[in-house]
UniProtKB/TrEMBL annotation:
Protein's UniProt name: Putative RNA-binding Zn-ribbon protein involved in translation (DUF1610 family)
PANTHER family from the UniProt entry: SMALL ZINC FINGER PROTEIN HVO-2753-LIKE ZINC-BINDING POCKET DOMAIN-CONTAINING PROTEIN, ZINC-RIBBON RNA-BINDING PROTEIN INVOLVED IN TRANSLATION-RELATED
Coiled-coil parts of chain: none
Pfam families noted in UniProt: HVO_2753_ZBP
Organism: Halorubrum alkaliphilum
Ranges for domain Small zinc finger protein HVO-2753-like zinc-binding pocket: 12-55
InterPro entries: HVO_2753-like (IPR044720), HVO_2753-like_euryarch (IPR049683), HVO_2753-like_ZBP (IPR011668)
């Protein structure tokens, strides 16, 4: 995947909004290492998330 394609698919794993250009967190899944993006609102509210690759769930 090219750098441009990866930027256009950056979505919050909790709510699904595009996080490109926002104050968002990017981190590796604790189980499989896949990249997870979360928007500031979902992080502040401690919304649950689920890794799309392995199904790991976290707060």
């Amino acid at each position: 995947m090219s750098d441009t394609e990866s930027r256009s698919t950056q979505q919050c794993v909790s709510c699904g909004i595009q996080v490109s250009g926002m104050s968002a967190a990017r981190f590796a899944c604790p189980d499989c290492g896949a990249t997870i993006y979360r928007c500031a609102k979902c992080r502040k509210q401690s919304n649950l998330y689920e890794c799309h690759d392995c199904g790991f769930r976290g707060p």
